[in-house]
Design brief:
InterPro entries: ACP_syn_III_C, ACP_syn_III_N, Thiolase-like. The chain is α/β, with parallel strands linked by helices. The chain is built from 9 helices and 13 strands.
């Protein structure tokens, strides 16, 4: 039986390493006297990385892709997908810029679905590989969400609307997908959209709602409301997916989930009655890196030796919108 599998994965982090204290200093420099240690108390002790001002989203995607392609100098890439919440421009699609920088000649397109952009790209790529449209698909992502953090004109009454952004970090990833007849790879994929909650978490600028309002280019939203909705809708969806795949939660050896705070992995463990030690924790290392967070967690699990041949892994995506995705694969 033919399956799609992630043959290789690489990531890229910018040079500037930022801690909570430095973020608080930037907030104070913007005119708001934030309490020292508040970020650690609210979102957890963490590090994140910020791209340079002249470092583009495409640059981070390309840096990760170059590391990957170094291992496959003779591999012909048939399709290139750029998948991210971020982008170099509104038009043209960022994939064109990535293609030019990598020197590729294959077709390509952008796929955007907030923090589930990469997980959705894996699902789309899987369908294209299984129907023999392509043999080798390269998925790349670059996230520069540090540009959407609000540091100025903050008031006590509204800081909560922008608080989640203080955990944002920048990163790039690249994944090579192909097929195999071995007993490994992706064997279940499903995602669901709950669009009635789209207004809970947003960056409003750059689209037709606010095309010329620069003040709307920062993150805002009801993150506490979002957390409550996720608590309500995600567990039954994930449990249904596990059952539909013919498994129990105990059959899953590791969960690589999108992480937005120190409490994300605990929430997943609690609501699924799952061993918290079997959830890959990366938030303290990289912060919330948007669509690159799930693949980074998966790569980290490989680097740390957390996975052995035959293990079953869940990629659990959660994104503004709201969108939830579940992907199960055998290593």
């Amino acid at each position: 039986m033919k399956r799609v599998f992630i043959e290789h994965i690489e990531s890229y982090l910018p040079d500037e390493r930022i801690c909570n204290e430095q973020v608080e200093q930037r907030i104070r420099a913007g005119g708001f006297d934030i309490q020292a240690g508040l970020l650690e108390k609210m979102i957890g002790s963490e590090i994140r990385y910020y791209a340079r001002n002249d470092e583009q989203v495409s640059d981070m995607a390309v840096s990760a892709a170059q590391k990957l392609l170094h291992h496959y100098p003779d591999r012909k890439i048939d399709l290139l997908i750029f998948a991210a919440a971020s982008g170099d421009l509104i038009e043209p699609a960022t994939v064109n810029i990535v293609q030019q920088k990598l020197g590729l000649t294959c077709p390509g397109f952008d796929l955007k679905n907030a923090c589930n952009s990469v997980t959705n790209a894996i699902e789309i790529a899987s369908a294209l590989l299984l129907n023999n449209s392509y043999k080798n698909i390269l998925i790349v992502s670059g996230e520069k969400t540090s540009d959407s953090i609000k540091y100025t004109n903050i008031e006590k009454e509204t800081i909560k609307d922008h608080f989640a952004a203080y955990s944002f970090g920048d990163a790039g990833v690249a994944l090579l997908l192909t097929t195999t007849t071995e007993d490994k790879g992706l064997f279940y994929q499903r995602h669901q959209t709950f669009g009635e909650h789209w207004n809970l978490c947003r960056i409003e600028g750059g689209g037709s709602m606010f095309p010329n309002d620069a003040s709307k280019l920062v993150f805002s939203g009801d993150t506490f409301g979002l957390k409550n909705v996720i608590y309500e809708i995600a567990p039954p969806f994930v449990k249904d997916c596990i059952q539909e795949a013919g498994l129990t939660v105990n059959d899953i050896d590791l969960i690589c989930t999108h992480q937005v705070s120190k409490d994300t992995y605990r929430m997943v463990a609690e609501t699924l009655s799952y061993d918290v030690n079997k959830i890959m924790q990366t938030f303290h290392l990289y912060g919330n890196t948007a669509a690159t967070s799930v693949p980074i967690a998966y790569q980290q699990s490989l680097l740390d030796g957390r996975l052995q041949k035959g293990n079953i892994v869940m990629l659990l995506g959660m994104a503004a919108g709201i969108n939830i995705s579940v992907q199960l694969m055998k290593v």
